[in-house]
Design brief:
By secondary structure, this protein is α/β, with parallel strands linked by helices. The chain folds into four domains: 67-249, TIM Barrel (Alpha-Beta Barrel); 265-341, Orthogonal Bundle (Methyltransferase, Methionine Synthase (B12-binding Domains), Chain A, domain 1); 353-495, 3-Layer(aba) Sandwich (Rossmann fold), CATH 3.40.50.280; 526-771, Cobalamin-dependent Methionine Synthase, domain 1, CATH 3.10.196. Strands 1-2-3-4-7-8-9 form a seven-stranded parallel sheet. Strands 15, 16, 17, 18, 19, 20 and 23 form a seven-stranded antiparallel sheet that branches. β17 (605-609) and β18 (617-622) form a beta hairpin.
Length: 782
């Protein structure tokens, strides 16, 4: 709650946050640590550590990002406080507030304030070696409304003291806890008096004012009558002036003022996009319609300026994917509001028309859909051809739509290879418009050495959606497009090294034990997990992958959640809400199947036997072996045929993707981009979590359950016995092996289909081959 107050203060213009947690009934050090863990993730302004305890100050400074300020030291006990705090100031590179207090007490008159400040300056600079710029003098201010005679005239003395200190020590700064001047007065009057006093103090040279920005009255908004009442009480303090001021504000309530932005209309419109907020958007769009003759100028002007800033912030790692999607939602809402006022144009390409497609055989579209959202809300006309798009379908769409560019997406290595074939097919049809390519397995080198040579037009690699936007903008600008072409022509690309051919008959075997215990499963019958409860899967979710990889949170997610990082917590709450809804409304259907089979190794092959007679060979897998030590091959994790002993292997398939793509598409069409992306990403990770849960069930049934004290963190980092591998990955790279797995355990009965290119539909599905060998581990055989 306190950290939210800090965030609100910064939002209202605070440049520094003063942190004071001293409370005689609480542990200040413990409170300070807990608070700073929260606040450093919510505000990015300097912190002022306000404490009299050196241990608290020292610990607090370890949390501060950049330069901090220590509040405060003085000469009340001679140099004792200086000696304790200045080493911390120098060690952490902090600045320090120095109160005008000495052994005689607090300085009230302007002359005394200057005297104490000069003495402090001499000690700090000449004895302790502190830079004058790191000294901030607090000339102290006292209440004018208490009737205390010793403070009559003190408000004026403080203003004069500020002026004298600034003149005598111009390299030093000054600070004042302004609200102390109005202590004891009616609340409505306090805010006015504080504002008037700040005005006069700043005129004298005050640098910092400690105030509540949410209750700070604008001096220009104060009536002349109130200014005069305040001036008289501050600088001509009498009982009569005090009584008049108090009478004027007695019974008055502080009015909650509607905040009026100082931004221009155009700046406000751009800011809605950058902040990802729709609050106030409609009214400003209506105002813009009155100002602009053509609504398109609103889109291409201030709104697009906002999207440009979003792109810049994302590229600087100041925004994450989820925030970019929220900005896109605001852009879509803005365009939807303006569209009824716009003339419809035939064959309007916007900034440019782009065809998007996931290549033949690939069912993965979460990345492509993200690109569509970003490009379409940056003025591009997008034609999304969907998944598993063949070359013929793409060629037909090019002829029909007459696009300015093509965007190709694919997840696996095989998809990257398919892009080469697609480029060849397009070239044969004399198509040479620019192609943007992207996907997890794709690299810039592969693009330049394998795809580009097969195409007559320019082929550009986009590492993410925002890079795709940048490239799309450049190819639609004639000058930038020419620069891109020149950059590619000048680029020196190393020849791709000859791929090492894998000889499946290499005789060198690894030193994996051939005498490790054989684990016999309880049953060789198939196990069906239908409508498996999400509550049993959710604990296995990998939040680092979900929040980090899919939603763009940077850093260690578990630490950010523990520290209460605002973005991370907010996104997790959105996912938690979806998971609750998914359980209550059956939005996600989890189904799985697994089965054990008798098996043996034959060189680099794995032989699968009929689970009934345990003799008939029903399938054979051939896996590559590492060409260098340790010469691993998956076959090494099973007993060889020559041993005469029967070993076992497991297979499983799970899915959490039924209907997810359709739900995501509906959300996208409704402009809820973050939700659309979130449910697809969550479904993908739920499938991975279900795979983790199923693998644990397999270990239980196989006779080597996890230890009782085994943690989820250990489970998610594969610290258990054995290993599971999925086809298409380094240890078993041939995706065609999926066909064999499907013949063995028939995932079709739980709703998973295999495409022509051996990819699974729904996308949120996982299959694996499981080994029990104690030395089983992941490796790269290529």
């Amino acid at each position: 709650e306190a950290s939210e107050i800090a965030r609100a203060q910064v939002k209202r213009g605070a440049h520094v946050i003063d942190v004071c947690l001293a409370n005689p009934d609480r542990d200040e050090l413990e409170d300070m640590e807990k608070f700073l863990q929260q606040v450093i993730n919510k505000v990015k302004v300097p912190l002022m550590i306000d404490s009299t305890d050196e241990k608290v100050i020292e610990q607090a400074l370890t949390y501060c990002q950049g330069k901090a300020i220590i509040n405060s030291i003085n000469l009340e006990d001679g140099e004792e406080r200086f000696e304790k705090v200045i080493p911390l100031v120098k060690r952490f590179g902090a600045a320090v507030v120095v109160g005008t207090i000495d052994e005689k007490g607090m300085a009230v008159t302007a002359e005394r304030k200057l005297e104490v400040a000069k003495r402090s300056y001499d000690l700090l600079v000449n004895k302790y070696g502190l830079a004058p710029e790191d000294i901030i003098f607090d000339p102290l201010v006292f209440p004018v409304g208490t009737g205390d005679e010793q403070y009559i005239g003190s408000a004026k003395a403080t203003v004069e003291g500020i002026r004298l200190i600034k003149e005598a020590m111009p390299r030093c700064l000054t600070i004042l806890g302004v609200s102390n001047v109005s202590f004891g007065l009616p609340q409505a009057g306090r805010e006015v008096l504080n504002a008037v006093y700040i005005y006069h103090c700043t005129q004298a040279g005050l640098d910092y004012a400690i105030v509540n920005t949410e209750k700070l009255e604008r001096y220009a908004s104060i009536s002349e009558e109130e200014k005069q009442l305040s001036y008289e009480l501050l600088f001509n303090t009498t009982d009569e002036n005090l009584a008049e001021f108090t009478a004027f504000y007695r019974g008055k309530k502080t009015e909650k003022k509607v905040e009026v932005s100082n931004l221009t209309l155009e700046e406000r419109l751009a800011n809605y996009i950058v902040e990802g907020t729709k609050e106030g958007l409609t009214a400003d769009l209506a105002e813009a319609l009155e100002k602009y003759d053509d609504p398109l100028d609103i889109i291409n002007g201030p709104l697009m300026a906002g999207m440009d800033e979003v792109g810049r912030l994302f590229n600087n790692n100041e925004l994450i994917v989820a925030e970019v999607l929220q900005s896109a939602e605001v852009m879509k809402a803005s365009v939807a509001f303006l569209e009824p006022h716009m003339e419809k144009k035939e064959d309007d390409h916007g900034k440019g028309k782009i065809l998007l497609a996931t290549v033949k055989g690939d069912v993965h579209d979460i990345g492509k859909n993200l690109v569509e959202i970003i490009l379409s809300n940056n003025g591009f006309k997008i034609v999304n051809l969907g998944i598993k798009v063949t070359s013929n379908e793409l060629i037909e769409a090019v002829r029909k739509e007459n696009p300015d560019a093509i965007g190709l997406s694919g997840l696996l290595v095989k998809s990257a290879q398919q892009m080469v074939l697609t480029a060849q097919d397009l070239k044969e049809q004399n198509i040479s418009i620019p192609i943007l390519v992207g996907g997890a397995a794709l690299t810039k080198k592969f693009t330049e050495t394998r795809i580009s040579p097969e195409y007559d037009g320019v082929v550009l690699y986009a590492r993410d959606a925002m890079k795709g936007l940048d490239l799309a903008n450049r190819i639609m600008d004639k000058e930038e497009a020419q620069k891109l072409l020149e950059e590619k022509q000048q680029m020196v690309v190393e020849e791709e090294a000859e791929a090492v051919k894998v000889d499946a008959n290499v005789n060198v075997r690894s030193d994996v034990s051939t005498t490790a215990p054989i684990f016999v499963p309880e049953s060789l019958e198939p196990y069906i997990l239908r409508n498996y409860k999400l509550s049993h899967i959710i604990p296995y979710l990998n939040w680092q992958m979900l929040l980090g990889k899919h939603l763009g949170i940077q850093g260690k997610v578990s630490r950010l959640l523990d520290e209460g990082d605002e973005k991370t917590v907010a996104l997790k709450e959105r996912i938690d809400e979806f998971l609750i809804q998914a359980q209550e409304e059956n939005l996600v259907e989890a189904n799985g199947v697994y089965q054990f089979f008798p098996a043996q190794a034959d060189g680099n092959d794995i032989i699968i036997y009929d689970p009934i007679d345990k003799k008939t060979i029903i399938e054979r897998f051939t896996f590559p072996r590492q060409q260098k030590a340790p010469h691993l091959c998956l076959a090494d994790f099973l007993r060889p045929v020559s041993s005469g002993e029967l070993d076992y292997v497991g297979f499983f398939a799970v899915t959490c993707g039924t209907g997810i793509r359709e739900k995501a598409e509906i959300a996208k069409e409704n402009g809820d981009y973050l939700y659309s992306h979130l449910i697809q990403a969550t479904a993908l990770e739920l499938a991975e979590a279900f795979a983790e849960r199923t693998h644990q069930l397999i270990r239980d049934k196989w006779g080597f359950p996890d230890p009782v004290d085994f943690t989820m963190a250990e489970r998610l980092t594969a610290k258990y016995q054995g290993v599971r591998v999925s086809y298409g990955y380094p240890a078993c790279p041939d995706l065609e092996d999926q066909r064999k797995l499907f013949k063995l355990i028939h995932p079709e009965k739980i709703g998973i289909e295999l495409t022509e290119e051996c990819m699974m539909n729904p996308e949120a599905s996982v299959t694996a081959m499981v080994f029990a060998h104690p030395e089983g581990r992941y490796f790269n055989a290529l």
